[in-house]
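Recall that a protein's primary structure is simply its ordered list of amino acids. Everything else, from secondary elements to tertiary packing, is in principle encoded there. The following example makes that idea concrete.
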Amino acid sequence: MPLATARVTTTRPSRYVKQLVSHMGHKVAATLAPDGRGTITLTSGTCTLSPMADRLELTATAVDAPSLARVQDVITRHLVRFATQEELAVEWTSAIDGGELEPTAPVVGEYLLAHHTPVDGVLGELAVATREAAADAAHMQVSSDEGALLTMLTRLTGARLAVEIGVFTGYSALCIARGLEEGGRLIACDISEEWAAIGRPYWERAGVADRIDLRVAPALDTLRALDAEPVIDIAFIDADKGNYPAYYEEIVRRLRPGGLVVLDNVFLGGRVLDPAYGEEHHVAVRRLNDMIAADERVDAVMLPVRDGVTIARRR
């Protein structure tokens, strides 16, 4: 369950981070990033320390409330001990559940939807058809602003070969197909012909049906049957989360230099930030996020777009 934060007013934030990392690094895992952020990993949990101009921001995470309290206590005691020239007030927020986080507040989300290039009738009608047919499952469709991002990224890469893992009703496939160069092709992987059938008429109306090669089969089988040469220009992963690491690996090895892989739902509703969530898909996405950050084959950025979007570019 627990996450907690604290904002500590101080004129010496960077100095405290360095002192804490140096001192605690003799007993526990403690790292200092080039930008001055520190991470201290205790047996009971983890605390990140971010120096700002006039404050130090702390974020503590743990698997349960008692463990979180221990992390808070250790960090607070050491921080206050190092503050010999000022009196620090370390006041932690109440613990919250990662699943209750709102990376994009509703009011921000609505503003974003109102301020991107408007969708045309085909995309708009497909969105409506999806809501009517899928009901509670309609949330699996990407939002219109994320769809616009996919079209833009596809165009920016000059993509001729794209791969999508997870088609659902075909909204994102349509967005990607529209961004392809003339003669380009999208290999769209899904296990449901039924859902994809909803999108087919809209692909036809948009004039991109001939660009979309729908393959109804387990995506890993489809990926492993592709040529091993690095020829993919852009890929979008938005399918079963437990297989994200495997999908990523199969795609990255086939990405051309400069090619992109885009991954949706890397926050899992905030649950990947909360170590108390330990189901297979939580662990898989958490592991993937760490893996991408350390992957020397790519340059990557994670964006707080909707439920979290990672964009990785093959070096």
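The first strand starts at residue 2 and ends at 9. Residues 127 and 171 are 7 Å apart (CA to CA).
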